[in-house]
Specification:
The complex is a heterodimer.
Chain A (H helix, E strand, L loop, with lengths): L1 H5 L9 E2 L1 H6 L6 E5 L6 H4 L6 E2 L2 H5 L10 H10 L7 E5 L1 H16 L5 E4 L2 H7 L27 E2 L1 H9 L3 E4 L3 H5 L1 H4 L18 E2 L16 H11 L8 E4 L5 H12 L5 E4 L2 H5 L10
Parallel strand pairs in A: 1-5, 2-3, 2-4, 4-5, 6-10, 7-8, 7-9, 9-10
Chain B lengths: L5 H11 L4 H12 L29 E7 L5 E7 L5 H14 L4 H5 L6 H5 L5 H22 L1
Antiparallel strand pairs in B: 1-2
Chain lengths: 288, 147
């Protein structure tokens, strides 16, 4: 259970929870399980009993501005899914918890720190033949008072990234090698990736996000294995200010989680504008 | 009159008329449940699949094959490597059921943005791009035959 996670040597193992623990706490009134997926059909096709869905398109984004929901929106969301500030939220989802870590990251903008990621996500839960249901739970609405969204600590904006770049700060590009090289935008008949130019932010290290995962069961690799990838191969310094990015900030929230919670990097931010902003912006440098 | 195959036009019209997200999801899940009927047989392709058959931008790792039929049309086959890629599976089933055996000229006219009336306009950018990638590859196979 939790000890297996602790044995992996993470800096903050409390950011993860095992499927066994979740299975044993399905009826715990102080735990809310939240599913967040890349594929919107998965939750209605079956989910962990008692789990609610948080959909990034509908629940986490402002419908008009390119931004996340504001304080009032977050309070309304938490009220709707029956969460109080004291409750533990366990996030899980498909694609190795890609979107679960994104939701987790957005929740941290509002300071809901009593939150964990279910190690292995939906794939591990299914692989263990654990129960799934199509029954959508209904919880009594709550009164949730949230602080204003704090974008200063774990979120990076374009101008901050530019200054960071100018002082040769650490950047991690977590997209695929083809996106990093810029090759993808040049391939014939490829759908528009949302950017005018292909390439990466100058100086960014390329570490595709899914390298942090054990492909057989979707769990996170051990701290030693992760350290080898991020620090050994790429030479990233855990004490240095680090900014991760991808295309719109969702894959990089996964790497943000890995660097901050599993490896204990002291200052990691997620640049959610990512390549769809950087690759389209006038006057910003890129590298191929 | 429509310049895309009638079966596809009918499905688009039916799905496009659905305004309830849950109802749309249920229909698409039922569609995805038929995926085994369109899965590529071993006499057409075996793993590891050629990259040329990979649908661009599809995070669920969808692959597309087109087999020439005696009447000059194409029979489409698919695979989706992500077992949780339900949307991709539903897209593949819709494409097979509506485009296999249809005139190539019409298949070549199918636009990739059919994913929006099928899956909803509010589908995420990444998911939309992946599903459009599947359509693009199907359309591309028809265009190749037409020269």
């Amino acid at each position: 259970m939790a000890s297996q996670i602790e044995e992996r040597g993470y800096a903050h193992p409390e950011g993860l929870i095992a499927t066994e623990w979740v299975a044993a706490h399905l009826n715990d009134s102080q735990v809310r399980v939240v599913e967040s997926n890349e594929d919107p059909l998965l939750y209605p096709s079956g989910h962990i009993p008692g789990a609610v869905q948080v959909d990034w398109t509908h629940d986490l984004n402002d419908p008009l501005r390119r931004d996340y929901l504001n304080r009032a929106g977050f309070e309304a969301l938490m009220s709707r899914i029956g969460v109080t500030p004291e409750m533990l939220i366990v996030f899980y989802g498909d694609k190795n918890n890609w979107w679960a870590t994104y939701a987790f990251w957005v929740f941290q903008l509002f300071g809901h720190s009593n939150a964990k990621i279910m190690d292995g996500g939906r794939a591990k839960w299914e692989k263990e033949s654990r129960e799934l249901t199509r029954e959508v739970p209904s919880f009594a609405t709550t009164q949730y008072t949230a602080p204003e969204r704090d974008d200063r600590v774990i979120r990076a904006f374009r101008e901050q990234v530019l200054k960071h770049l100018e002082k040769q700060g650490q950047l991690v590009d977590v997209r695929s090698p083809a996106e990093y090289s810029g090759e993808k935008l040049h391939m014939p008949e490829y759908p528009q990736e949302g950017a005018l130019r292909g390439g990466h932010i100058p100086g960014a290290k390329s570490v595709p996000w899914a390298r942090a995962i054990n492909p057989d069961d979707g769990t996170f690799k051990s701290a030693e294995e992760l350290r080898q990838i991020y620090e050994g191969e790429q030479g990233l310094n855990p004490q240095a200010e680090t900014i991760a990015y991808c295309r719109i900030g969702e894959r990089s929230s996964h790497t943000w989680f890995v660097l901050k919670y599993l490896l204990g990097f002291s200052d990691v931010r997620n640049y959610d504008g990512s390549w769809t902003e950087w690759g389209n912006s006038v006057g910003l440098p890129i590298e191929r | 009159m429509t310049d895309i195959p009638e079966k596809l036009a009918d499905v688009i019209a039916d799905m496009g008329s659905i305004t309830d997200r849950n109802e749309r999801a249920e229909l698409l899940i039922e569609t995805a449940d038929r995926f085994d009927s369109v899965r590529v047989p071993s006499d057409v392709a075996t793993k590891p699949y050629a990259e040329a058959n990979r649908a661009p931008a599809c995070e669920s790792e969808a692959f597309v094959w087109a087999v020439d039929q005696p009447d000059g049309t194409l029979k489409y086959y698919f695979d989706v490597l992500n077992p949780q890629g339900l949307s991709a599976m539903a897209m593949c089933v819709i494409l097979d059921e509506t485009l296999s055996g249809q005139p190539l000229e019409q298949v070549a006219e199918v636009k990739s943005d059919i994913v929006f009336p099928l899956f909803g306009k509010d589908i995420s950018m990444g998911k939309g791009a992946g599903l459009m990638g599947i359509v693009t590859l199907v359309q591309h196979e028809a265009k190749k035959r037409l020269g």
